[in-house]
């Protein structure tokens, strides 16, 4: 793959129908923002590190957020899947270990992790607690929006370092 696709990112409505719609819309906006920051870049660019000694890269952020989506996966009762592994089944690694030849796999894993999250919580009450962490689904949504927003700030700086692109 030469470059990652640039997704379209609609603005969340300013008058959501209810709390759940507001949370879903804001989280989707943050998820798409991450992919927008990666859009149009080659695997080599996606693996570009920030500044020494940091190992932070856009590809590393995608890998990290694939695993962080597991907060939602707790609701489906299924075991961990490959998006938590460091390119070797069963070996959980760190997201800064990136391999440019696996960039497509990392994007596919991220997309699968997000799809699993959506399915795992569909129709569940925001007051329902995770059997694993004990946190309510409402708290998890808020935590995930915060997590994405923080890392999307990192992604802004990384993207600017790579090709000078700034902004949304």
TrEMBL record:
<protein>
    <recommendedName>
        <fullName>DinB family protein</fullName>
    </recommendedName>
</protein>
<dbReference type="Pfam" id="PF04978">
    <property type="entry name" value="MST"/>
</dbReference>
<dbReference type="InterPro" id="IPR007061">
    <property type="entry name" value="MST-like"/>
</dbReference>
<dbReference type="InterPro" id="IPR034660">
    <property type="entry name" value="DinB/YfiT-like"/>
</dbReference>
């Amino acid at each position: 793959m030469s470059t990652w696709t640039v997704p379209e990112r609609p603005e969340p409505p300013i008058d959501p129908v209810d709390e759940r719609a507001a949370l879903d819309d804001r989280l989707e906006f943050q998820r798409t923002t991450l992919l927008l920051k990666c859009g149009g870049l080659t695997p080599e660019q996606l693996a570009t590190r920030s500044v020494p000694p940091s190992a932070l890269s856009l590809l590393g952020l995608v890998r990290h957020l694939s695993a962080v989506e597991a907060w939602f996966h707790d609701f489906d009762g299924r075991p961990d899947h490959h998006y938590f592994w460091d390119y070797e089944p069963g070996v959980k690694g760190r997201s800064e270990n990136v391999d440019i030849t696996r960039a497509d796999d990392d994007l596919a894993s991220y997309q699968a992790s997000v799809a699993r999250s959506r399915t795992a919580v569909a129709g569940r009450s925001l007051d329902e607690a995770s059997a694993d962490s004990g946190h309510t689904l409402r708290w998890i949504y808020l935590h995930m929006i915060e997590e994405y927003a923080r890392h999307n700030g990192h992604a802004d700086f990384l993207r600017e370092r790579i090709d000078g692109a700034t902004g949304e």
